[in-house]
Design brief:
The chain is an alpha+beta fold. The protein has four domains: about 110 residues, Beta-Lactamase, CATH 3.30.450.20; about 80 residues, Signal transduction histidine kinase, dimerisation/phosphotransfer (DHp) domain (Helix Hairpins, Orthogonal Bundle); about 180 residues, Heat Shock Protein 90 (2-Layer Sandwich), CATH 3.30.565.10; about 80 residues. The chain is about 50% helix and about 20% strand. The chain has a five-stranded antiparallel sheet with strand order 2-1-7-6-5. A five-stranded mixed sheet has the order 9-11-12-14-13. The longest helix is centred in the N-terminal third of the chain and has 51 residues. The protein is elongated and about 120 Å long.
Length: about 475
């Protein structure tokens, strides 16, 4: 390829060079410039660079002698920095490279260092400003959450003091609602604070030695009463391979399990909730623990499952209105699992329950570093056989009728106590158990549910009696059995 073919205006190489972001010059062995692209012409202030001496734009760096061009700049592609002079003799610093293209002819590519340095300063300034904004945001969140927590805890303390007195049932009901509101508010404040720290990258784990089974018992104790109050069964198991003592952030593990179990309880009206921990791998002084939290609840459509771990995201707006929540819990759980070197996943199907699984790596104390674990790979499904059978109870069977009557009794107690939140949960369970029922009973159960939602005690109690009468008179199994 010759110099003339490269700078032919009809050549594709010419188009690329003439419209490039860097300055490009061609010059011969005597230092005469034979081509300058638009960028070089504009930056150097010339109308045309052809014929201009390279020594005139790089005085002191290039010199023309009888033997040709003399320079201390590498002509073999080594990068260099020099001052380049415009036509008006002002100058600026460039960084460039010179390469030979044909015998005794060369090409130079260069760019303005000051512009790059200016961009770097702007980037550094933006980063600094962003850091300042993040710090201001974090300080603001910390201050606001502190200011919120102070009055909330004050209300909670006074509520506990009042609850210690022998007050009428109506007053205790109001105090219980205030207590729960304060506890929910504190949980929300903690979630916002954790989310802010995680998003700013300033959240750090606090690994310490702890008793793994004690931790699992603590989590189980926190949830078992609420799960049983909804008429659900609760199972918790820990693999025998897991040593008694491990090293990790116990508080954050509890936080993850609490989030998952709270969701499982919230969205399950009939059946069971199950929590399990299994040792899956040992690597030197580390052990991988695999957790499962399974339920037989309402399930999640596959198209919505990608929303679960996003911040401030609910599967759909009606879920947020009905069940509450900010959508932060699962996002925080995912980030905590990531910090512990693990992964979190979900498997679910509408009406057939949900299984959350996650793994974390914990350290082993010296006394436990020679343990071995089972080599069998555990097989898991979104809902195990017992739970699946529980969901597939056919309406009209003896077990099904017994379960409906059991829920009706608990619903009556809730109505008498004025606990409408639990009453609605039991009405949902009854509706789920009556799936496939004849129209006569399904319409009565729908009326029951509507009465509970409207907090109409008299109408709800009347619907309960009607449903009981229909069940007592005998319901034939549906034709689909």
């Amino acid at each position: 390829m010759t110099m003339n073919s490269i700078i032919d205006e009809n050549n594709i190489y010419y188009e690329l060079m003439d419209n490039g972001f860097d300055g490009i010059l061609f010059f011969d062995r005597m230092g005469a410039i034979t081509y300058g692209n638009k960028k070089a012409i504009a930056d150097l202030g010339y109308d045309n660079l052809v014929g201009v001496q390279i020594a005139s734009i790089f005085p002191g760096s290039f010199e023309v002698t009888r033997d040709g061009l003399s320079t201390d700049v590498s002509l073999a592609g080594e990068p260099f920095e020099r001052l380049i002079y415009r036509k008006n003799m002002t100058c600026y610093k460039i960084r460039g490279k010179i390469r030979p293209i044909v015998d005794n002819e060369y090409t130079m590519q260069f760019y303005d260092v000051s512009r790059i340095e200016g961009l770097e300063k702007e980037i550094a300034s933006v980063k600094e400003n962003t850091s300042d904004i993040d710090q201001i945001k974090n300080e603001f969140v910390a201050n606001v959450t502190h200011e919120l927590r102070t009055p909330v805890n004050g209300i909670l303390g006074n509520t506990h003091e009042l609850m210690s007195h022998n007050l009428p049932a109506a007053d205790m009901k109001i105090l219980s609602m205030i207590e729960r509101g304060c506890e929910d508010m504190n949980a929300l404040i903690n979630n916002i604070l954790d989310f802010s720290k995680l998003e700013s990258g300033k959240f750090q784990l606090d690994p310490r030695e702890f008793n793994f089974r004690d931790m699992m018992d603590y989590v189980r104790t926190n949830h078992i009463n609420k799960i049983h109050e909804k008429g659900l069964e609760f199972f918790s198991t820990v693999s025998g391979d897991i040593p008694e003592k491990v090293i990790g952030d116990e508080l954050r593990l509890v936080q993850i399990l609490n989030n998952l179990l709270s969701n499982a309880t919230k969205f399950t009206h009939v059946g069971k909730v199950m929590m399990e921990a299994i040792a899956t791998a040992v690597d030197g002084n580390r052990i991988e623990i695999f957790f499962m939290v399974m339920d037989t609840g309402i399930g999640i459509d596959k198209k919505n499952q990608d929303k679960l771990f996003k911040s401030f995201s609910q599967v759909e707006a009606s879920i947020s209105r009905r069940f509450g929540g900010t959508g932060l819990g699962l996002n925080i759980s995912k980030q905590l699992v990531d910090l512990m070197g693990g992964h979190i996943n979900v498997e679910s199907e509408l009406g057939k329950g949900t299984t959350f699984t996650f793994s974390v790596w914990l350290e082993l104390p010296e006394a436990s570093q020679n343990i071995t674990i089972s080599t069998e790979t555990p097989q898991f499904s979104s809902v195990d056989e017992d739970l699946q059978k529980n969901m597939e109870r056919t309406f009209g069977t003896e077990e099904n009728i017994r379960e409906i009557n059991n829920r009706l009794t608990k619903l009556s107690l809730c109505l008498e106590m004025g606990n409408w939140e639990k009453a609605e949960s039991f009405s949902d369970a009854i509706k789920a158990l009556a799936d496939g029922a004849p129209r006569e009973i399904s319409s009565q159960i729908l009326r029951l549910k509507m009465a509970v939602q409207k907090e109409n005690k008299d109408r709800a109690m009347a619907s309960i009696e009607t449903v009981r009468d229909i069940l007592a008179n005998g319901i034939q199994p549906s034709e689909d059995e």
